[in-house]
Amino acid sequence: MATWKRTRGFWVSIILAFAFFAVVQWLITSGTLNIFYVNTLFFMAINVILAASLHLIIGITGQFSIGHAGFFAVGAYASAIMTMKLQLPFAVGVLVAGVAAMLAGLIIGVPSLRLKGDYLAIATLGFGEIVRIVLLNIDYVGGASGMTVTHMTTWPWVFACLLITIIVIANFTNSTHGRACISIREDEIAADAMGINTTYYKVAAFAIGSFFAGIAGALYAHHFYIIQPSNFGFLKSFDILIFVVLGGLGSLSGATISAVLLTIVSTFLQNYPETRMIIYSLVLIFVMLYRPTGLMGKKELTSLLKWRKTAQGGMNHGSKNTVA
């Protein structure tokens, strides 16, 4: 019974998630959702995966990375090579995309351990640009003209990858490993003094975050038919960074909410790219002025619900005369 009380919220969330999946699947198969809304839904889910993966690196571990589009690109091109060049199944392409991006995360993570703050940001930005320039000059993947990819991304694939990403990152954050990463974010010197292997956890955060960014790249590549190096420039890295900062550094719920909201805004303003960037800038300015910690700060939706229940319970108990 005690185990059920501890895990009740998790299983209720899973049931609601599968109910949402079933409803959306019915709307897609019945044709109620047209291609525009399906594309928006898929792009929204991909952005949530990207935001959650960067949330682990920046929000939880405190490593300021602005080269996440590089891992996104590695996953997209790795999966496209698997399916289009080597004629392997889509499942293999998705897995290889995650592994290739994770290896890229290890490559950038290990040499950059001595760097912090702005210097780490510059190093990761350089990595993202190196990936883009390399892809521009490789004829095997189409160079600047890009690579045509068969449509293989379906709603079950998108939902499964999104659900796994959220579950893994949420459970990692709530585990002892996640607390070690949070201690590094708060004070790396103190964490090292307490015996936490800061090197291991910083590399692990880069590896896990880049793995899921690669998964998002595979879904993206096999949904939009063509991938080009220009799709993965530094502006894409800043878009992902905005999701995390706007939602609140340290809040997975906040990153998810901001990714959904900004994807909707971006989709409906796609014919006005200049206006979109102006709105992005205004939103960030207002958030930094009136909500410096982001929409959710470091809180999660579950913690807010628990706080509300505790507050109601406190009010009920307050009506009784008790002796401490």
Q: SS-based structural class?
A: mainly alpha
Largest sheet entry: 2 strands, antiparallel
* Shape summary: globular
Assign a percent range to the helix content. Answer: over 70%
Total strands? 2
CATH domain topology of the domain at 35-233: ABC transporter involved in vitamin B12 uptake, BtuC
Element pattern in H and E:
HHHHHEHHHHEHHHH
N→C terminal distance: 29 Å
- Mean pLDDT, nearest integer? 84
Protein name: Branched-chain amino acid ABC transporter permease
Membrane topology: Multi-pass membrane protein
Transmembrane segments: 9-28, 34-57, 64-84, 90-110, 117-135, 155-173, 200-220, 240-265, 277-297
Keywords: Cell membrane, Membrane, Transmembrane, Transmembrane helix
Report on the structure:
This protein has 324 residues and is mainly alpha-helical. The protein has a domain at 35-233: ABC transporter involved in vitamin B12 uptake, BtuC, CATH 1.10.3470. The protein is 74% helix and 1% strand. The chain is built from 13 helices and two strands. The chain has helices at 2-29, 35-60, 68-85, 90-109, 117-136, 155-174, 176-186, 188-193, 198-221, 234-247, 252-268, 273-290, 301-318; strands at 147-148, 226-227. Strands 1-2 form a two-stranded antiparallel sheet. Helix 2 (35-60) packs parallel to helix 6 (155-174) and helix 4 packs antiparallel against helix 9. It starts with a helix and ends in a 6-residue tail after the last helix. Mean pLDDT is 84; it is low at 314-324.
